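CDGSH iron-sulfur domain-containing protein: C-alpha cells wanted.
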Amino acid sequence: MTVQRRGPLLVEGPVEIELEDGTTVSSDRFRVALCTCRRSRRYPWCDTSHRRKA
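Answer:
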C-alpha cells in the first residue's frame, strides 16, 4: 500500500474492501486507488475528485 499526501491510497490488487454498511466491493486490477477524502462519486474507488477545490 502506498500513502500519498492529499491523494488516494494506492493498493496492489486484487483487492476486496468491506464498507461500513457491511457490503463488499472488489477489484481484480493490478493497482487500485482508494478514496480517502470521500469526494469520489465512485467511492471507495478514487475518481480524482480530491483535485478539485471545494
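The chain has a mean pLDDT of 89. Strands lie at 2-3, 9-12, 15-18, 24-27, 31-34.

Cheers.
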